[in-house]
Amino acid sequence: MSGPPASPAATKPPPPPRSVLLAAAKITVRAPIPRVFEALTNAEQLAAWWADDARIEAELGGRYEGTLPEGRVEGTITAIDGPGKLSYTWPVPHEGGSVETSVVFELSPKGSETAVHVAHRSPVPVAGEWDGVWRRSVESLKAFLEQGAPGPA
To answer: Does 9 fall in a domain?
Structure first.
């Protein structure tokens, strides 16, 4: 029951991508997955390596907040599948308003170490040095877990 084939002029352009990858970072940490997950979900530890004034409610729909040099993150946890995955929203200022971006941490075993992969996505391109933000974050996480000290600020 289909009609005649559409003419080339009537074909629609492909839909825009559903998300834009703002940044991704990977690092291997000398710590077991549960320890790494704890550093992502414990406010005191989060404050030591990631953000000032960190607040977290480690449950689905809980808050995930902290103050970075780039501004205040006031997110909501959208997935918490410990100890392998954590994701949260991060509303980012954009064109006079804000756009809701998403951050996903995925942890996987790599022998006695843990591979950490973080991806930051947005429905639209958002200006910012996101690669630098996440590179600093994972390096700081690694330093915190391996040396007990925050990494480069």
So the answer is: no
